[in-house]
Amino acid sequence: MKQFDITYFHGPFSNFVVKDETVREIAASGMTLVPLHYGTETNKAALPLLRRYGLRAIVSDPRISRVYRDDDLAAADAMAKEVVADYADYDNIIGWDIVDEPNAAKFPVLAAIVNAFRRYSPDMETVINLFPNYASPEQLGNPDYVSHLEAFVNIVRPHLLSYDHYHFLGRENRNQTLDLDVDERERLIRLSAETTENRGGFFENIEDFRRIAVKYGIDPMLIVLLTEHGPYRNLTRGELFWEVNMCLAYGMKRISYFTYWEPSHDDHWQWTNAMCDTEGNKMPHWYDVQAINAAISPAGRRLFQTTSEAVFHIGTPEPAATAFTGFGGISAIDGENGVIGFFSDGSVYLVNRDFQRENTFTIHADKPLNVLVGDAFVPMDGTSIMLGAGEAVLLKF
Prior knowledge:
The protein is an alpha/beta fold. The protein has helices spanning 20-28, 40-52, 62-70, 76-86, 107-120, 137-140, 145-156, 184-195, 202-216, 237-249, 284-304, and strands spanning 5-9, 33-36, 56-59, 93-100, 125-130, 160-165, 219-225, 254-258, 308-314, 330-334, 338-343, 347-352, 359-365, 370-373, 376-379, 384-387, 392-396. The protein has two domains: 5-304, Glycosidases (TIM Barrel, Alpha-Beta Barrel); 308-396.
């Protein structure tokens, strides 16, 4: 990866992605990178529009999918050469999207595809998104999750590591009542968060993923839940902040939302509350994500240039996490429900692990800290910081 990017998985339908208004609103939401998962001609029609609004693209092309589907290792070289030449006139492509959630049986053909693109577009990346840790061994094609990650890295030799993890379940409980002094929409969203048990394994997953990324020196990214569907509830702004700020604390170099556009009126998944509906009308989450992207981007750009050194939990640690007892010039932190990430340039990213209510943290450090406010560091006022639900702050000595 060459810069901190914010993107999404599943965007506008093909007849919308070639419209100026659609692309303008993608850029206005704070996205910087757009996946083009269309046919070749639609991809080419969209690329100049993206460039007009300063957006870069990851391109998925049917020719890539065909080699992958057919396990045609022998055809990978000629395919990559043809695809790269075909898109040579478009300078805002940064890479090639290969596939989502492959089984390990597909790793050999993925290795052939990645190697071929390295040969013909050495300055571009390839993107292969992996399963989360709640996938079964049958889905993975490996006996356990860490073995799956290790096999992927060693066989495929990927440009980057990507996975998705959707943490917030409980859609079926959203119609209960809860006495909260908020508008009806927010009341129902918070009700869901209050009365449901979230999927376990989020921190085990991100801990394992971070460890593999650091071990092999590969940039990681995470696709987080946004759109209500199936068992996944409608998220509060605090929950959305929580997801993306955990990404930054754990050293993710790119963040992706699932989804930007409502995929369909499918009776099974019952998609709703995306950033845009099926006709492109902006929904409340469009404004949530726009505000979140603006808030995290200054920190994301700085953390992109450094390396994750350690992550700790303040208060009772979640499973697989390590309790904070002092590190990197900070001897202690008073407070509960926090996550703190330390980076090689001296940056410290502190997150409120509570996505429902604010928390205050008091930092005991060897020397004064600066805090990022807007796009600049200023001296920290005192030693205590109050963070809203799921919110975070970037600190530096």
